[in-house]
Amino acid sequence: MIMKTTTLFAAALACLSAMTVQAHVGMKTPCARYHPAAGCPAPPSGQSIDYDINAPIGTSDNAARPLCKHTVPYTKRTVYNAGQTINTAYSVGAPHGGGHCQWALSYDEGKTWVVIKTLIRDCLRNAGPDYTVPVQIPANAPSGKATFMWLWNNAIGNRELYSNCADIEIKGTNGGSITGVAPLIANYGSSSVYLPEFATGADGREHFDKRKPVTIRVSGGNGPAEPEPVTTRPPKPTITTARPKPTDCPIAAAAETVYKTVYKTVTVTGAAQPTNA
């Protein structure tokens, strides 16, 4: 009986492990804060490399980590010119049916964000292990230190929000402003917008039309960013529709049930207790 139970326990762990890898995605170019990839800066003093960089920052029930996941910026920043296109890259376990992605800039260390690109439904759809998306910095972007954020709400699987941030410096105009919308924050705690799974049918894109207009204004000489409201709405993001893909791991739910059942019934004397990664 013990042998059979142990075998079931191992099988459940294997499936859950595979499911975890598949569900996780992270931004690696530009370097997300504390990314373990070669070529990324060393973490700032008091911080450490994040070997779980691909994990989500929260679920529809729990905002576990802050936006960006890490709040202390890199000391070294990647420099981009206003109008330049960043070929953003991601490490992908599995596309999980795609989803919604947003990219945003902040000049005040994450207090105020303006979206510079939105990809509805097809973000990460059919993505391979290395996935890229071109994101252009606005041509009128002011010079200064900025935070570049990526957000992803997956189409299939647990209702999660993924986010990574890169610390960049923009060479642009001496002062100026960027006008756009604030990002939609969904599936990030019980008070956030809830997006159910959208393998087929409605995908919640109407929520993106309700994002609030915002203008980020930066004074000359790399002064602080000053958000101010605008009275006109910017253009709506381009929306494309593609055929959905089936759930990536159809046995995941069954495996999780086995895992929970076995975990409650098996005790191995003297063995170390499992810990969460």
UniProtKB/TrEMBL annotation:
Superkingdom of the organism of origin: Eukaryota
Region of interest (Disordered), ranges: 218-247
Statement: the UniProt record of this protein carries the keyword Signal: yes
UniProt signal peptide: 1-23
Cross-referenced PROSITE patterns: PROKAR_LIPOPROTEIN
Keywords: Signal
Cited Gene3D superfamilies: 2.70.50.70
PANTHER family assigned to the protein according to its UniProt record, in alphabetical order: PROTEIN, PUTATIVE (AFU_ORTHOLOGUE AFUA_6G10930)-RELATED
Name listed for the protein in its UniProt record: Chitin-binding type-4 domain-containing protein
The species this protein was found in: Lobosporangium transversale
